[in-house]
């Protein structure tokens, strides 16, 4: 069996429709998506291109994990509303995926954090 060589995005949280949508966006962008993988042991093995938290609440509850990620140079994105942007940045997010989320916004966010090379 051939190993999947697509870059990996870790998704923290599982909210049904939003998780499915992000999975489709990731697949369309050439990534594979792994849901709820927040173990630091696995981080060194999988070397994700980015980590996406499904809400600022999840980001807030995972602050010890976020502090550990700071040394790994892995971009952190969070799904948030416009009103939550400042708080998400305070909590360590490198970029916010604002609602309502579109594929173009998703791709632009990955380019912005360096997880997806910009194609001219």
Strand order of the largest sheet: 2-1-3-4-5
Instruction: Please indicate the percent range of residues in DSSP E strands (runs of 2 or more).
Output: 15-25%
What's the Cα radius of gyration? 13 Å
What is the rounded distance between the termini?
34 Å
Order of helices and strands: EHEHEHHEHEH
The major beta sheet can be summarized as: 5 strands, parallel
Class derived from helix and strand content: alpha/beta
What is the number of beta strands?
Answer: 5
Question: Could you name the CATH class of the domain at 7-54 and 94-114?
Answer: Alpha Beta
Overall mean confidence score, pLDDT: 87
Provide a count of the helices.
6
| Poorly predicted runs | none
General shape: globular
CATH architecture of the domain at 7-54 and 94-114: 3-Layer(aba) Sandwich
Q: Can you give the helix content as a percent range? A: 40-55%
CATH topology of the domain at 7-54 and 94-114: Rossmann fold
Walk me through this protein's architecture.
This protein has 120 residues and is α/β, with parallel strands linked by helices. The protein has a domain at 7-54 and 94-114: 3-Layer(aba) Sandwich (Rossmann fold). The chain has helices at residues 17-28, 40-46, 56-61, 63-70, 85-90, 103-112; strands spanning 8-12, 32-35, 50-53, 76-80, 95-98. Strands 2-1-3-4-5 form a five-stranded parallel sheet. α1 (17-28) links the parallel β1 and β2 (32-35). It is globular. The mean pLDDT is 87.
